[in-house]
Write a structure and sequence with these properties.
By secondary structure, this protein is α/β, with parallel strands linked by helices. Among the domains are: 168 residues, Beta Polymerase, domain 2 (2-Layer Sandwich); 214 residues, Beta Polymerase, domain 2 (2-Layer Sandwich), CATH 3.30.460; 139 residues, Nucleotidyltransferases  domain 2 (Four Helix Bundle (Hemerythrin (Met), subunit A), Up-down Bundle), CATH 1.20.120.330. 59% of the residues lie in helices and 6% in strands.
Length: 910
Amino acid sequence: MEKLKKLTKDLPDEQAALRFYGRLSEQHPAIAKRLEKNHGLFSDLLTIAAFSPLLSTTILQNPNYISWLRRARNFAAIRDKEGLRESLARFALTNSTLETGVLLARFRRRELIRVYLKDIRGLGSIAEITEEISILADVILEYALDVSRQELENRFGIPLAIDEKGKQIHAGFCVCALGKLGSKELNYSSDIDLLFLYSHEGETSGHGSRGTTTNREYFIKLAEHVTKLVGTQTGEGAAYRVDMRLRPHGRVGRLAISVNEAVRYFKEEAQMWERQVLIRSRASAGELSLYDDFFAQVEPHVFSAELTAREALQNVRLSKEKINAEEDVSKGFDTKLGRGGIREIEFIAQALQLAYGGTDKWLRSSHTLISLARLADRGLITDSELTNLFEAYAFLRRLEHRLQMEHGLQTHRVPDAPEKRLLISHRMGIHFVADFDDQLAKNTDNVSDVFTRIFGDRETLEDPLSVRSKSLDARKPEDRELGRIFTSLEKSDTAELQALGDFDGLKIISREAPPLARLIAANPNLVETLPHPGEEYVEADLQTGFFEPVMAKPTFAARLAEMRKIKSRVISRIAAHDAYREIDLETSRGAQTRLAETAIETAAAVAKDELKRSYGHAFAAFPLAALGLGKLGGGGMDLGSDLDLVMIFDDEPPCPVPSVTRAEFYAKAVEYFVTALSSMTRDGSLYRVDLRLRPDGKNGTTASGLGAFLSYLKERAAVWEWLAYVKLRGVTGEHGLAEKAEHAARGTIHAAAEKFDRDKLRTESHEMRLRLQAKRSGTRKGNEVNIKYGEGGLQDVYFAIRYLQLRDNIPDDDQNRSTLNSLSKLRDRGSLSTADYLSLKHGYTFLRLLDHNLRLNSGRSNRVVADDPESVRVVAERMGFESPADLLAELTSHRLNIRDAFDSVFESRV
């Protein structure tokens, strides 16, 4: 059906949507027929099916929900408690034969269809969505309490007490919410953390079938009954998993406790982390004033004016370490507990609240986002940190929701399997796994930066390493790396420990290349493959050592795993020889470039096979080419370099699969290709793939026909795009397509530039460089120098060279695309004066070597921390300087000379 195809083609899981409609048509044909007349409702149901197999199954099992959704989908506003109470009351009337636990579970599941549709459609913010989920829990708890209270009163009568004036009164009961429910930030599959409080001791009236009992016994039974109705698993599941471990005395404490007992406990016995829990607490159901009475008495002990900021931060940090020690965070990234995850955002807010809330009551908010905004208002976090934390919180909570609503499980782990990771990327509205990984890394890095600024280096507190590692000199970074490796190896087998004992390069690697040491700690089996100091360097045979073993694997997932394992072995051998100072920079970069080229060639072959499997159609020709830009284009790949690519297909022959269009086929091809190269698996990542320099950038198709590509370069490309494409180089493609595309594209660029107004070319090139400088190096953390984007950095050299190449029509040599060779050509052709040539040549040579050593030693390129000499100590030594100060002085000199030459090239001295 044409309408069905149109509605499903852009969904993240088109096949799931089609399966849903197929089952609906088979099981409920009349409903399916009516749906065709309601385009909006039809689209919503297919969308739900593509995002949540759990909810699509729920709808198929309860087809009457479709007519309910037709009405409910029109309400975009948050349903308040009163509205949800009425909905639950109506639901109970129409389902009066159901047991209460089943009723509540079904009602919750039905309401989540409405809420998740709103979530998917972007009709509510994360704060609004989590608040509505929390209100739903409140209403269900309130209903369960009413039913339970009626049952207990039928048995024992009403709980009574004597007030201060000697008058008989009813004793009250309150369900208090803690954790995410307490702050109204509940997610779809959260446990609900509860605390049950009652007002007075005493006895019940005895007007029931069981006679009189103590209030204590009554309220414990009431708490048990509520917990059972809400949390007992039935054939329909449970409404919620109820967690009572945060009550006083934990698992051994009474299920319900009087307000006076609770106050005494939190004042006198509770540990700091238990008081921290009360930051996110509120009344959820019952007599709400009981909670107010309780919290008013304990609030000064939660937010203590006597607690120093240092003590507060230390206590919260230790709470985080305790959680890390108890949870398994080793298998894949955990959105909640992982580095830079949701828990760290929450603890940032709570730590600063505890540190400063004792004297500033305005900071005492339970909601994480409100707390962060108030902390920023008080200057305790910066505006940029607030923005980063807000963005990370929204991204991670949306990701958490997508993970949990697939099958309704309480999961926080991002899948490693390529197909599943691609699907979660699509459900996040991100086309490529590489872009998803980028956003995940960016957001978690931003959170981690703030966490580290507030709490200090993650290694400074009780480090959960072994006693063996603690015995090392913790003041030396290389010893910390050794500690990590020892700890990792102590968890592995005897053979690996034996290999470690025989390996004499570990101390050098830990000092000269800590990122490599961390790689060894994560992959202890690498020890057996690493070279020893003094061992001759032999470049790997990548055809027999990379391409062939990968293609011999039978499945897509196995091939991706093999690619990552082999790349780790090859790159670690190169880095080890580099750490031993046994190979020069050209050898290292040349080997890494050839490794990247082989990986790209292999990924193309893997993608070709997957396309055959996916379409069920064999084909021989696969005219797809990868063209490299940046470091790949110039043949200078280095540690941690991205792959900047443009994907081109031959638009003359017919599509390899006749049943689909070229655009659809090659979009799918690039998807498989990029996934093969960039997706994160259990074996790590391969490369970050950047396709943003393709025609029309993010708005453009991921693969362009050659004719369309050349037309774009000639007619629509901006000057900055010409500058990028100067270094275009064909990397892989069948039957010479890559080389053909490269030569045609470079010819087109130079021809177009030759006809372009020279003053405009100069002005636009110069302005683009300065905009890039302001954008990428404008924010500095401390006294940092950005050696790539900052003034006098590598980008000054690149822009000067490429501008002159375009201005004077001096293309790169086919056999040597290096920056130094380009500089020589420009000098020989008279485009560069000898003085400017020497400044750019010597400056570039210095910066390139500095960049490489920063990558090797810290895993970080671009930035040098000028006021932290220790961070460049080893780098300075490797580059032959007697001290970090001497290196920094040389850096300043070269940057000044480069900027002078850059200004000379663009005739803009100031």
